[in-house]
Amino acid sequence: MAEAISIIEAKGLRPLSVIQPQYHMLDRYIEDEIMDLCERYGIGIVPFSPLAQGLLTGKYRKSEPIPQDSRATLKYNQVNAMLTDDNLEKVEALLQIAHELGISLPVLSLA
């Protein structure tokens, strides 16, 4: 992103005003790679998929089949790449934490 900002400045182009990266509690790369630049240049961030395509809603569970009405049943989708054993184990742990706090997984995930 720093390179893009340099090109925009060098060419006198209209600056970026907002970006929309994927961002959720299982994918936080923007904290290390993008957020500081956005703050420095006054660029807004609108998170894409804050509930990880439904993964952080509890819709997909390690011990359960994929729901038939789910986007994960479609041939081309983004959620299948996230349905790893590691992520599904994290969902189970997060569900337990949410239960202990008396809140839903989506509320915990967005908090």
Walk me through this protein's architecture.
The protein is mainly α and 111 residues long. It contains five helices and two strands. Strands 1-2 form a two-stranded parallel ribbon. The longest helix is centred in the last third of the chain and has 17 residues, at 85-101.
Mean pLDDT: 90
Give the overall shape, derived from the CA principal axes.
Answer: elongated
The major sheet is characterized as: 2 strands, parallel
The proportion of residues in beta strands is under 5%
Helix amount: 25-40%
Order of helices and strands: HEHHEHH
Q: Compute the gyration radius: what is it? A: 18 Å
Number of strands: 2
Estimated structural class: mainly alpha
- End-to-end separation in angstroms reads 27 Å
Low-confidence stretches: none
Short description:
The protein has 111 residues and is mainly alpha-helical.
Task: Label this structure with key terms.
mainly alpha; 4% strand; 111 residues; 5 helices
Layout of SSEs?
Layout: H1 2-11, E1 18-19, H2 30-33, H3 35-41, E2 44-45, H4 85-101, H5 105-110
Parallel strand pairs: 1-2
